[in-house]
Amino acid sequence: MPYLTAAVVLVALLSGFNLLLTLGLIRRLRQVEGAAGAGHSGPPLALRPGSSTGEFTAVTLDGETVSHESVTGLVGFFSAGCEPCHKLLPRFAEHARVLGRESALAVVAGDDPQAVEALAPVARVVVEDYDGPVAGAFQNTWTPAVYLLGDDRRVVAAGGRMEDVFAAAPRA
User: Fold this and answer.
1) What is the DSSP letter of 141?
2) Residue limits of the Thioredoxin domain (predicted)?
3) 22 φ, ψ to 5°?
4) pLDDT at residue 16 in the model
5) What pairs with residue 59 in β-bridges?
């Protein structure tokens, strides 16, 4: 019986210690997130401002060939079954409409006719697999992801929301 009591006390002490460590980690994580900018929920993007995309060639739904040399402006990555992607679609389309179809490229991964229908009137649309050539050139593994490319084809801004991209873009 004394061994059982000692074991229960030991487990209770370890559980309490674990709880304190967890609370400390949560507190520390909130401090780090606050220092990095409250409310920023950026996706894990490999290309950051100043980065160049890799080389790619793809064909849009209209049969136009696009490549790393012909794409500037707004580039968005969307995927089928992605609720945040569908929430982003109207804002992306709005910006694409303002920039003009030649300055907007939408990359849709998977079968998502609704996204294609929303994007095709305002942007050049490439439908490819999740590891397609455009996603590979951007090293993009996350959706939604939005990039703004300058005339030199370097990333000016990147993020998971339109606010991330246009808040980070330098003003002309």
Assistant:
1) -
2) 47-172
3) -60, -45
4) 85
5) 65
Where does residue 55 fall: left (phi above 0), alpha (psi -120 to 50 degrees), or beta otherwise?
beta
Q: How far is CA 86 from the centre of its chain?
A: 13
pTM of the model: 0.73
Number of C-beta neighbours around residue 163 at 10 A: 13
- Report residue 11: phi and psi, to 5°: -65, -40
| Distance separating alpha carbons of residues 23 and 9, to the nearest angstrom | 21
- CA pair distance 127, 136, nearest whole angstrom: 13
| Residue range 117-130, pLDDT digits in tens | 999 999 999 999 98
**Is the model's pLDDT at 40 over the cut of 50?**
no
* CA–CA dist 162, 95 (Å, integer): 9
Rg (alpha carbons) of the chain, rounded to whole number: 22
Q: How far is CA 3 from CA 16, 17, 144, in A?
A: 20, 21, 56
Q: Which uninterrupted H or E stretch holds 76? A: strand 73-79
